[in-house]
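As a point of orientation, let us examine one representative protein, giving the amino acid sequence and backbone structure tokens.
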Amino acid sequence: MFPDDGNRAPGVSSPMTHAVPFRTTRRRFIQGGACLALGAGLVSVLNGCSNEPPKPVEGAAPKVRGRTPSGEKRGAPGNLRLGLVRPGAPDTPPLTDLESLLVHARLVAVDPRDGSVHGDLATALEQPEPTVLRFTLDDHARFHAREGEQPRPVTAEAVKVSFERRAAEGVPLFSQVIERVEAPDKGHVVLRLRAPFALLFELLGAVPAAVTSDAKYEGIDERVGAGAFVPVAREGATQRLVANPLLKGDSAPRLAQITITGAGLERDLDLAFAHGHIDVRRHQDEPGVLIGGGRDGRTLVRRPATRMRGLGLSLVGRKDGREVRSVSAFQDQRVRRALSYAIDRASLRRADNAFAAGPVGPAHAADALPPADVEAHPLFQYRPDEAARLLQAAAQGGLAFTVVHPDIPAMLPLVKAVGESLAQGGFAPRMQSMPFATWQATLAAGDFEATLVELTNLETPDLGLRLHQSGGLDGRFSPWGYSNPVYDAAVLEALRQLDPAARAQKSREAQRLLLEDVPAMLPIYAPGEAISVAKGVSGYVAEAYDFNTAYLAREWATSA
């Protein structure tokens, strides 16, 4: 491991700042730098986080899987009721992300559980050149049509126009990653990439990659899609979606309708579930879980959130050409290992209903280290006596340093518990609260001795890898000052894999290398989130995240 000398090539944006808009709150938004993956940070991925020319994509393109008929009855008169926070304004805003995933179709979708690529509008994929992909379109795909209108086919030209529209809007996938979209004939779309890009298929399956026509829905300021459900007229804050009548046989949804009710507050939705007014509720806190327990027969599903909490260490006193606070003792692997041994992760997880986390959070199951491996890894064992011994061996007994953290109430239990654990392990931590804006600027500059940090919006699996690279998230500098050329090379190899499943394998190899060296941002856990599902609901796969909504929703059903 070699400290960062602070003289890396300039990048395109500051680390730890969000580059695209998203909806959040101050309480939840503790650290939003992860959003760089969908903005200016794409440049660093395309360029391998260095000034070196990108190397060719390794391995073949993934095989696109088709839908597997479940044999379940289709078109039943079921109505699944969902809810989200949305004011009942008189105007008609565009569809929310949840609604877009249900209404719009995309070329492909990626299952985060195993990295498999599934065809939505595409049925097959060829790779004639390393950065050229040729998709075969489903010749039965049609855009939604009003009653009495002739449905328009989803042709290659329609896909091309839709993607070019997204590029003009500045969507990074289409403005930075894809150089050109071609429609050689009506049944094939060709994407020419600017450079190798390992996250292509995840982003092709995301909300901004929806394929839409030029027309708009009646009463909704949203372009017409070709997904499993069709939006009908909004009534206040309630949106009703009906099964796409153009989908037949095994392609048709099992549900006849989905009703999405808007509410003013999150707590209103907890109460709506408890009173039987909605059928699925993603709770925001444990009081909400308790409220949801008032519904007889409900199933409570807990899953890792796309967030991570950790302890970040500043190893060097100069970053990005500036003098910053640091603790030189942290350069000693024994000291970092002692810090990790001093954290009682199992106890912290139990207190917060959280999940074991390695460098890549467990929400990205394919890329993350298996939970059992993380829990059994020597670095993540609670060994306060060994921590104290390592400190003495490094001549750092009673090492004092300041741990800064944002003044957010949700963090206080973790702050207290980590401070006590470190003290029991032979350290002398000073826990220092900061106003949120001050703390965020401190983190962005890497100007701290140590910090408790929550990473939010870890929507893609590369973020957990790149956070530990010498160039950090945007290729400029590591906020920790950590640099390991062997690990950097392993990450670059992972990000050259076009197949998500192949990338996942390389991702795990890179993480094992990092843990062996003891990283400067020590993962503590991934916060959990809880989903209440009403009795009688089937086919709802919470651990599949957006893949559940965008691809598996055709299998949702309810007996209610």
